[in-house]
Amino acid sequence: MKAYHMTGGDTIAAPATPPGEGGIGIVRISGPRALGIAERLFASPRGRRPESHRALYGHIVEPETGEPVDEVLLLYMKAPRTYTREDVVEVHCHGGMVPLSRVLSLALAQGARLAEPGEFTRRAFLAGRLDLCQAEAALDLIRAKTEAAGHLALSQLEGGLSGRVRELREMLLLAAAHLEASIDFPEEEMELASMEEMRRLMEAARDGAASLAGTFREGRLFRDGVKTAIVGRPNVGKSSLLNALLSRSRAIVAEMPGTTRDVIEEHLSIRGLPLLMMDTAGIRGARDMVEEEGVKRSLKALTDADLVLAVLDASVPLAPEDRLVLDRLSDRNAVLVLNKCDLPMAWEETLLGNDSFPPRVRTSAREGRGLEDLKDAIQRAALGSGAFRSDGVLVTTLRHKAALDGARRFIEAALDALASEPPEITAVELREAMDRLAEIGGEVTTEDVLERIFSEFCIGK
Ligand code: GDP
Fold it and tell me: What residues are paired with 273 via a beta bridge?
């Protein structure tokens, strides 16, 4: 296990901006020697010294020779009003690899250590500036690819989930306090009112934990996007539909830099729900293939999709390949799209049977008809039963869900014990339940868990 200290630890440095060319690039230094190191490397024109939370113009220079390395803004932030709660210096240099790596290596030569991935955020956590689920949210926010995902991460970063979990713990603490009283004064019969209050608190905490855990499916979909596959024969209009959805959804999210329309995955937002369209290159590439090959290719995307949009061409007779697609829809979250309904229908809808599953929508990608119905159907199929809350607190990671499920089980055990066992047993179960809840914010946690979470960060975060 590595040793991390809240204060008196070493001083770390890393680039805080991504590699590559940019207008500016930032080297961040955090730790007790941050200011000392910066002052050795920095020269201001009038010899001014850095003041906390003020930007100062000057140059980074080779300390031995005084040779200027880059023209910079220096931002010194004195502990504790900083991200890590330690002294922090940011050197805003010119973007690009050369200035950044020279400034960084000078800082390292002055005794800073290259930060490990996520170490700044880890220090913020260890110093109590963030709890663990807020630190996880910081990572989610950086990674968010849609507004909805960003919104969700921000609410968690600002303590939405932490606050809910704290409420649950407080209920259990109160229940435990009632219980302690009965353990300490066993000769006094516990008052009925106190007993009822205890049960009420425990039941409320149990239900709260269960309902929070129940938001996980939705939370995951909002965080990661609903993995969506559009499947169907070549030429039924899959890419036309995708384009219609893309151009009509006002909330299209920026495509990844450097990609074209032939990207493998594309993000779009439907009624606030982020959709991750899978294998869109495959969809577009399949057009010129033989039917069966094209269908096979589009079906491949179906394997780990959360949602399937199966497209049929309503203007030509159903083909055996359409059946291949239809056969794959049972037990999937699917929407059946009958496209090209601007043309005369070549077959009766009854051919598809009378099942209400999967829901059917008639569209014309060409004329932009049926798209609103399609969006409604997508939203319903992805989230089920109309439950839809893009605000509110959602649980987004399995780690949090597992902790909530664990807490709920211990509360149930505590409730059982309350009815039939000595109060000490109930107290033990309650303690366990509170520990499970404390795992979420990281008050109770192991080095492994921390390692796993922070190693996902990039260096410099
Ligand atoms: P994909 O191979 O399934 O992606 O199909 P495309 O989107 O490339 O469409 C195949 C052809 O069908 C193109 O010529 C489209 O213009 C045409 N098409 C797509 N959607 C419609 C529609 O709703 N109505 C009509 N009439 N034509 C359509």
Answer: 270
CA geometry: angle 278, 232, 379, nearest 5 deg: 55
pLDDT tens for 127-142 read 999 999 999 998 888 8
Q: Is 441 in the pocket of ligand 1 (CB under 6 A)?
A: no
Dihedral angle sign, alpha carbons of residues 116, 119, 122, 126: positive
Name the residue of 231, 235, 363 whose CB sits within 8 Å of the most ligand 1 atoms, as the mutation to test its pocket: 235
Reported in sequence order, the residue ranges of 127-237 that DSSP labels E, i.e. its strands, are: 226-231
CB distance 194 to 184 below 8 Å: no
Cis check for the bond before 257: say yes or no (omega within 30 of 0).
no
DSSP-assigned beta bridge partners for residue 54: 76
The 3-state DSSP class for residue 131 equals coil
Q: Quick one: tokens of 133? A: 């689920």
Strand-pair partners of 57: 73
Ligand 1 pocket member 298 (CB < 6 A): no
Site of tokens 């309902």: 211
Query: How many other CB atoms sit within 10 Å of the CB of residue 376?
Result: 15
Contact 51, 119 (CB under 8 A): no
Q: Partners of 74 in the beta sheet?
A: 56, 91
Rounded to an integer, what distance in angstroms lies between the CA atom of residue 416 and that of residue 406? 16
Contact of 338 with 350, CB cutoff 8 Å: no
DSSP state of 314: T
Distance (Å) from CA 344 to ligand 1 centroid: 15
pTM for the predicted model, two decimal places: 0.74
Q: Exposed, middle or buried: residue 354 (CB in 10 Å: 0-12, 13-18, 19+)?
A: exposed
CA distance 111 to 199: 57
CB distance 282 to ligand 1 below 6 Å: no
CA angle 130, 133, 136 (to 5 degrees): 95
Ligand 1 centre from 430 Cα, in Å? 61
Query: Side-chain half-sphere of 130: how many Cα atoms within 13 Å?
Result: 21
Q: Is the CB of 206 under 6 A from ligand 1?
A: no
DSSP E strand boundaries for 373-459: none
The atom number, within ligand 1, closest to the CA of 286 reads: 2
pLDDT in tens, 178-237: 888 878 776 666 677 788 899 999 999 999 999 999 999 888 888 888 999 888 888 898
Q: Which of 233, 236, 238, 240 to mutate to test the pocket of ligand 1 (most atoms within 8 A of CB)?
A: 240
* Phi, psi dihedral angles at 459 (to 5 degrees): -65, 135
Nearest to 66 by CA among 74, 54, 58: 58
